[in-house]
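W.,

You were right to be curious about this one. When I first looked at the sequence I had no strong expectations either way, so I just let the prediction run and decided to look at it fresh. Below is the sequence, 153 residues in total, followed by the output.
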Amino acid sequence: MTANIPHSAQSPAAKAPRIFTSANKREVVLEELNHLFVKTGQPLRNLEKLKIALQNSLLCITARLISDQMLVGFVRVSGDGVFNATVWDLVVDPSLPNGEDAKTQLIIRLKREIKRTLPHCAVSIFAHPQDFHLLSLANFAEDEKGIRAMGLK
């Protein structure tokens, strides 16, 4: 575990259930992932489109409870695999006690997989403001020139 990212041993909050992470895209069950998205406040996604998104993702990391294999976290990476990679859909089940630990484990695994499989890519992330602090601890930083993502309407 990276020293600069907080761990549950450092926080007296509720003890988080034990989880494991996986980078195997074939283990992702679309309906289960869609259910997790809804639990995190995101809209239900079209399963066919979600399937295409996962097939075209460079990486998908899942977090599951050790006790019953329930999906409790997810993050994926898309891009060209050579110059640029973008992190999407960093989600953790909000009902997890101390869910920040699960998110930390996802980020640690994500960084390890990016370094292993996409070592020369510039990596960007689309994240919720509540995750900025945790991401900054994992060495993600806002663009020094103040560049913000824009969306085509």
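Here's what jumped out at me. Residues 29 and 142 are 33 Å apart (CA to CA). And, maybe more interesting for your project: The longest helix spans residues 99-117.

Coffee later to discuss?

I.
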